[in-house]
Write a structure and sequence with these properties.
Layout (H helix, E strand, L loop, with lengths): L1 H10 L19 E7 L3 H12 L5 E4 L7 H5 L3 E3 L4 H5 L6 H10 L6 H5 L1 H20 L9 E2 L5 E5 L8 H14 L3 E3 L2 E8 L8 E8 L4 E12 L8 H7 L17 H8 L4 E2 L7 E7 L4 E2 L3 H4 L3 E4 L12 H11 L4 E6 H6 L5 H7 L3 E3 L2 H8 L3 H17 L19 E13 L2 E2 L6 E3 L5 E7 L20 H18 L1
Parallel strand pairs: 1-2, 1-9, 2-6, 9-19
Antiparallel strand pairs: 3-5, 4-5, 7-8, 8-9, 10-17, 11-12, 11-16, 13-14, 14-16, 15-16, 18-19
Bound molecules: flavin-adenine dinucleotide (FAD).
Length: 490
């Protein structure tokens, strides 16, 4: 019923219904070859790949006023093992080492993996080669991969580095897409998908789009439609539907990623894999003063994290996700990094640097002053620090079994930074096969419909997306490239 309504709506639309942004180059057309919906990493890779694989016309439609989505806001780390960059830097890694390491640290529990191991495995296999492909398109990487959780240095930052490299990557890809003749339409969003019938095996033949301002129009796609509209981190309705335990947790990242691509695909029968692992959504540890994520120092700098009660609640070195999970589980709204001047002096050139240069880190001459100013129970904080310092002296964290970055907190000045969990990437998403085709509830590919990136959910595990052997940007690249290539074949 819904499908028929869409088709009628489309036939009733006239060409005059189109009106374009300055970037648009398809004036007067109601048809394209490959239609890519969403202009982040996955969408750009799909559009470029479609062109490189012979698609005559490729149109990329983006809801926002510029391209980038979550990709441009990301930490800039392309996490993969077995690259030429690692080899040059003397890091002994491979697809196999990365895969085994990931499985061991929880990947085997992931539902995507259980459902179709080959879809997951392909990301590990193609990720390193696709890094070379990104370089061939003009994307620049730093030459020293960084360590995060995992047994090798696998974080390949877009140049110039952590948090600041993503605009370079997106701009390079956009430039390439424009050079190849991709039509880029901004301020226009996907509303629904158009199918050629309302039968079970209907093919997707286009989409109903809506310009900012509310005007709707149909765009037909001869070769296929690629959904690359990101996840639903900022869609509270969908967060509650798939992950009710996260109701009320704040969202981070692009406000435009509300899950419209998933909804549109589900409306024509697509299957969603709901991943509850690790709360089903990735959460950043965000500084409340700055609204910027500050997770990395947890695994690099000796510090403790306490709640309002002044109590530790987790082995901090397990990373931001483990800390966030515990906070959500225990319903702690806020937590605080606490560190002393020894840590700050010794680790000032690590990931701590940016926070001390650019963010408001509060400095106090005593822990009492710190507790009072931050609204933390001093009685408990004093006890927490005392026990922690005694444990450090004994070389054993008696409370949470922490073994890394153990250093006493005893040298003024003391520093505190208030943080909260904010969800930013959904692990649940559309089921795809190795060709990036979207599957229906019976596991059959929906003709003409492909998907890549966050819209397909994630290979999350242990420490979440990015905490292991691969990351969201790699998934977006690998399946974006495949989706474009496959659609171009039609
Ligand atoms: C703060 C932050 C830090 C991160 N750090 C890292 C990291 O270091 N490494 C890593 O690998 N991953 C990281 N991630 C995750 C990573 O950014 C994502 O996995 C990746 O960017 C997904 O790419 P995408 O193209 O699928 O989605 P996006 O980049 O979000 O692109 C989706 C696009 O679709 C558009 N859109 C949405 N709805 C519609 C619609 N209805 N019609 C048309 N367009 C629509 C959006 O505006 C957006 O431009 C981070 C994410 C965030 C938020």
């Amino acid at each position: 019923m819904q499908r028929r309504t869409f088709i009628q709506l489309c036939s009733g639309l006239s060409i005059a219904a189109f009106s374009y942004s300055p970037l648009l180059a398809i004036a007067g057309e109601t048809k394209t070859g490959v239609l890519v919906l969403g202009g982040g990493m996955a969408g750009l890779c799909a559009a470029i790949s479609a062109k490189q694989n012979g698609a005559k016309e490729v149109t990329l439609v983006e809801k926002g006023g510029f391209l980038g989505g979550h990709s441009i806001l990301s930490g800039s780390g392309y996490w993969i093992g077995g690259t030429k960059i690692q080899e040059k830097a003397g890091i002994d890694d491979s697809v196999e080492i990365n895969w085994e390491d990931s499985l061991e640290r929880g990947l085997k529990l992931n539902r995507f993996l259980k459902r179709n191991p080959e879809v997951a495995r392909q990301v590990y296999e193609k990720g390193p080669k696709d890094l070379d492909w990104l370089e061939s398109l003009g994307v620049k990487f730093t030459d020293q991969p960084a360590q995060a959780i995992g047994n090798r240095k696998r974080v390949h930052y877009f140049a110039p580095g952590y948090r600041v490299g993503s605009p370079q990557a997106i701009k390079s890809l956009q430039k390439k897409a424009e050079e190849l003749g991709v039509n880029i339409v901004v301020n226009t969003k996907l509303v629904s998908l158009i199918t050629d019938s309302d039968k079970r095996d209907a093919a997707v033949v286009g989409a109903i789009l809506e310009k900012r301002g509310g005007e709707k129009f149909a765009l037909y796609a001869k070769n296929g439609v690629v959904l690359a509209t990101g996840g639903f981190a900022n869609g509270p309705e969908m967060v509650e539907k798939y992950h009710p335990y996260l109701k009320g947790v704040k969202s981070h990242g692009s406000k435009l990623n509300v899950g419209e691509g998933i909804k549109a695909a589900v409306a024509i029968g697509a299957n969603v894999i709901v991943e509850h692992y690790g709360f089903g959504m990735n959460m950043l540890f965000v500084g409340t003063h700055s609204n910027v994520s500050i997770g990395q120092p947890l695994v690099e700098v000796p510090l403790i994290v306490v709640n309002k009660e002044g109590e530790r609640f987790q082995d901090e070195t397990r990373g931001y996700l483990a800390v966030n999970h515990k906070m959500v589980e225990k319903k702690f709204k806020l937590a605080y990094w606490i560190l002393d001047s020894k840590s700050v002096d010794k680790y000032k050139d690590t990931s701590l640097k940016i926070w001390f240069e650019k963010q408001k880190v509060n400095k106090y001459s005593t822990t009492k002053e710190l507790a009072e100013a931050e609204g933390i129970s001093y009685k408990n904080l004093e006890k927490t620090i005392r026990i922690y310092n005694e444990d450090v002296a004994k070389g054993k964290d008696s409370e949470y079994g922490r073994t890394k970055l153990l250093q006493t907190i005893d040298t003024a000045p003391y520093y505190a930074f208030e943080c909260e969990p904010q969800i930013y990437t959904s692990y649940s998403g559309l089921e795809i096969n190795k060709k990036a085709q979207v599957l229906n509830e019976a596991g059959v590919p929906i003709k003409g419909l492909y998907a890549a990136g966050d819209v397909t959910g994630h290979l999350a595990y242990q420490s979440g997306l990015g905490g292991g052997g691969i990351s969201g940007l790699v998934m977006a690249t690998v399946y974006g490239k495949i989706a474009g290539e496959e659609a171009a074949k039609n």
